[in-house]
Amino acid sequence: MSGSWLITGAGGMLGQDLLARLNGESVVALDRKALDLTDPDAVLAAVEEHRPDVVVNCAAWTAVDDAETQEEQALRINGDGPRHLAESCAKTGAKLLQVSTDYVFAGDGTSPYAEDAPTAPRSAYGRTKLAGEQAVLAALPEAGYVVRTAWLYGAGGGNFVRTMIKLEGIKDTLDVVDDQRGQPTWTADLADRLVRLGQAALAGTAPAGVYHGTSGGETTWFGFTREIFRLLGADPERVRPTTSEAFVRPAPRPAYSVLGHDRWRAAGIEPVRDWREALAEAFPALLAAERG
Questions:
Q1: Which of 54, 147, 157, 185 has the fewest CB atoms nearer than 10 Å to its CB?
Q2: What is the pLDDT of residue 292?
């Protein structure tokens, strides 16, 4: 592997797996205490000091519901932050990989969203993340990469899988939403694709633009939970289907978050594997992280 890397948001769930994937390489890891992405001077100083070949921005405001009432604050991190990074990378010649989200779409589709499908976010979080995408692609038309992901889980932070592991031990039955479809994605799998994409970008074999970093296949939160119970050796029948109306949240959740993966092959990279295969491999570490 060649090139040097700078990771922002390195303390988060994805950032941790990305650092593990880059183990032994030239990497600068910056968490939110080490770098304030809303400060353009600080961002430029960090990029100019370390002169990375590839920057991966894993930092984000991810409190989806809170963004509904704090959109301006979320925009500073999700929109202005990527813009500051992109402008700094444009000055130093670095490639930038910006992690984004399925929330940039309306979520009312019936077939997988292509990378160039029209965006129409329905939440403040989605609007702020779309602003970050647009800033990166505008400032770095030949060196900006947007990687949209969804339904992330990993051992290095709180997430749906770890919550369901916990609830299985204390609840007789669980009612889980069965009218939202998506692609559960292991952060280790996404980290691997980010590294491969960065390498391909440096090699000149990956076109700049949008990629979709989610697992293959699709399911609902209900189907996802039943698979978690099966891996726990618990009875999946304890998981019962319900609708989104039973769990009203401030921010609307996309009913359909299935993303298409055609652009990976254009870069010579295989898309992420099926979600069930990934979950089975990830499960021992998730179980250990949750149960200590």
A1: 157
A2: 83
Which are the catalytic amino acids? 125
Per the listing, tokens 């602003």 go with 131
Domain extents in the chain? 5-158+183-216+257-273
> What confidence score (pLDDT) does residue 214 get?
98
Cα gap 194→51, rounded to integer Å: 19
d(CA 266, CA 289): 36
Residue 20 near residue 191 (C-beta atoms within 8 A): yes
pLDDT in tens, 56-105: 999 999 999 999 999 999 999 999 999 999 999 999 999 999 999 999 99
What residues pair up with 212 in beta bridges, in sequence order?
Answer: 148
**What's the CA gap between 58 and 147, in Å, rounded?**
10
Q: What is the mean pLDDT of the chain?
A: 97
Query: What percentage of the chain carries pLDDT values higher than 90?
Result: 97
- Residue 15, classified by CB atoms within 10 Å of its CB into exposed (0-12), middle (13-18) or buried (19+), is buried
Query: What is the per-residue pLDDT for 266?
Result: 87
What pTM was estimated for this model as a whole? 0.98
The CATH architecture assigned to 5-158+183-216+257-273 reads 3-Layer(aba) Sandwich (3.40)
